[in-house]
Specification:
MFS_Sugar_Transporters; two-stranded parallel ribbon
């Protein structure tokens, strides 16, 4: 009698719900990190902040994400995915509401730092838990959908911020506090999410792991294809040893190179568009909304190619992202329409590979340190993002064209790093992709794709009712 396999099953209703609930956290992350871009000019005028102080407020959450990723990745591997999954969203609610009552910029800076810690934890848990439930052939597309929710959250933040703008003195307070609303909804939806069977099995709780699988896949569910993936321990230092050191360096660097220009542009998008000739106020915010829509489309476009090659997608994304930034640096006085088109092109090219920020850390490390590695990469990547967010207003004060050129240089560094270090994991199970002795060379990638194509996924299995 055939058995139901987590790796070989087709996505069930439970798979979709787990992906969407994890994506709900990404939505909140994108909303929280982007709404500050709308609120910051109003806050700056209200408190008469200089560019340095504005950069500190804008980058505080990214510094918090550094701490949150480094700490809560390890915590997630130690205590479980489910607990952190609920804690971080609850923190979103409390800290979002508290922003309304600040009376000094330093108070807001502290709150944004604490929110960053919670966001760093959520980045770790969302990709980890979604990947550990996802079947092999659907893992890439499901995680594309999850990561796209970040772009949706960012776009909604700009729409909400634009809609909330008026002559009121405290508009920025309402904008920042509004992130509590989606966080409440996601917290309610996340209640009842099961613990990852891979994590349970790695802790010797095989009966509980089997119970989760049977609930998802039916009475014939088997743990057999999970055993090799879970023969690992939880020690922070393991991600810096042997083959995993190379993978840790790769994930951290490519992720940082993606985020530095993205966060710098997203956080100060209305200001950047104004400097290129779009009128101050509503016109620049409306332009930001249009650009954000293309960021969403770019993120979704990754679903078309993610199973054809992770490495290929990353290289093309970095290469094409640099071109519109170079054009923006080269043109002395581009028309507003050209500026919008070039930023839209950058968004489509860059965001097409955003899903790899969740996929690569999940596929390249075993269950015992998967969240630890994800958290470390999250933390290190936020160093780059924080540098970009803090330094952007200083560079923009000097020259917008220089800022665009530096963004293109960062994309080029990301391309070079990926060309040298990026592995190919398409078509591999989590166990095979994360094994220290997996052959990620071109010959090994060809063999993996050939083996994957010769394996027919099992029929759809019984869904959890």
């Amino acid at each position: 009698m055939s058995t139901a396999s987590l790796e070989k099953s087709r996505p069930t209703r439970t798979h979709w719900l787990i992906t969407l609930y994890a994506g709900g956290g990404e939505f909140c992350d994108g909303y929280i990190l982007s709404i500050i871009g709308v609120a910051l000019p109003l806050l700056t005028a209200d408190y008469h902040l200089n560019s340095f102080d504005a950069g500190v407020v804008g980058s505080a959450s990214l510094v918090g994400m550094f701490a949150g990723g480094l700490v809560f990745g390890y915590v997630t591997d130690r205590v479980g995915r489910q607990k952190v999954y609920l804690f971080d969203i609850a923190a979103f609610i409390l800290l979002s509401a508290a922003q309304f009552f600040v009376t000094d910029p330093w108070q807001l800076t502290v709150l944004r730092f604490l929110m960053g810690i919670a966001i760093g934890a959520d980045f770790v848990i969302a990709g980890t838990i979604a990947s550990e439930f996802a079947p092999r052939d659907s893992r890439g597309p499901l995680l594309v959908i999850m990561v796209t929710m970040w772009s949706v959250g960012a776009a909604v933040a700009y729409v909400v911020g634009w809609a909330m703008m008026s002559s009121g003195h405290d508009d920025w307070r309402w904008m920042l506090a509004s992130s509590a609303i989606p966080a409440v909804l996601i917290l309610l939806l996340r209640f009842g999410t099961p613990e990852s069977p891979r994590w349970l099995l790695s802790k010797g709780r095989a009966r509980e792991a089997e119970g989760v699988l049977k609930q998802m896949l039916g009475p014939d569910a088997s743990l057999d294809d999970l055993e090799a993936d879970t023969a690992s321990r939880t020690r922070y230092g393991d991600i810096f040893r042997g083959a995993y050191l190379r993978r840790t360096v790769f994930v951290s660097v490519f992720w940082a190179c993606q985020l530095l220009p993205i966060y710098a542009i997203t956080t100060y998008e209305p200001t950047i568009l104004s400097s290129f000739g779009l009128a101050d106020g509503n016109d620049s915010y409306l332009g930001s909304v249009v650009v954000q829509i293309f960021f969403v489309l770019g993120s979704l476009s990754g679903i078309l190619v993610i199973n054809k090659g992770r490495r290929t997608l990353l290289l093309w994304s970095f290469g094409l992202s640099a071109i519109p930034l170079l054009c923006l640096a080269a043109f002395a006085h581009p028309s507003p329409a050209v500026v919008i088109v070039l930023f839209a092109a950058f968004g489509v090219a860059c965001f097409a590979s955003q899903c790899l920020q969740a996929i690569y850390p999940s596929e390249l490390f075993p269950t015992g340190v998967r969240a630890t590695a994800n958290g470390f990469a999250t933390g290190i990547s936020r160093v780059g993002a924080a540098i970009g967010t803090w330094g952007a207003p200083v560079v923009l004060d000097h020259s917008t064209r220089l800022a665009m050129f530096l963004g293109a240089v960062i994309c080029a560094i990301g391309w070079g790093t990926s060309y040298i270090l990026a592995p190919e994991t398409s078509g591999l199970t989590l166990a095979d992709a994360s094994a220290a002795d997996t052959d990620h060379s071109p010959r090994g990638r060809t063999r993996a794709r050939r083996d994957a194509s010769s394996t027919t996924p099992s029929p759809a299995v019984k869904e959890h009712s």
